[in-house]
Specification:
98 residues, mainly beta, 0% helix
Length: 98
């Protein structure tokens, strides 16, 4: 399954709009998170109960932040909780494809 979602990343400094392209092959997931004019790759897996476990980085103009995310994605929506070394972010969005 390949899906593209229009997403919002809620951070302590405000909300950032972006996209996530998510590919699922069996239990493996990978994709690209485009936010703040940067393309950020991620990888992970889907648990038996449908929870995504993702590792990646978010690059900004000033720094690169590693994160671990958990959440769910289906044909209509995505919702993730991202945890960095110092912060937690919420990400949510809807599928842009029909």
């Amino acid at each position: 399954m390949d899906r593209q979602y229009g997403v919002r990343l809620v951070t302590p400094l405000g909300t950032k709009d972006g996209t996530i392209t998510l590919s699922k092959k069996g239990k493996n997931v990978s994709g690209i998170f485009f936010v703040m004019n940067e393309e950020n790759k991620f990888t992970g897996f889907e648990t038996d109960d449908g929870v995504l476990e993702i590792e990646g980085v978010i690059k900004t103009k000033y720094k690169t932040v590693n994160y671990h995310a958990t959440g769910k994605a289906d044909d209509e929506k995505i919702a993730l909780s991202l945890k960095t070394k110092t912060d937690r972010y919420t990400l949510y969005g809807i599928c842009e494809e029909e």
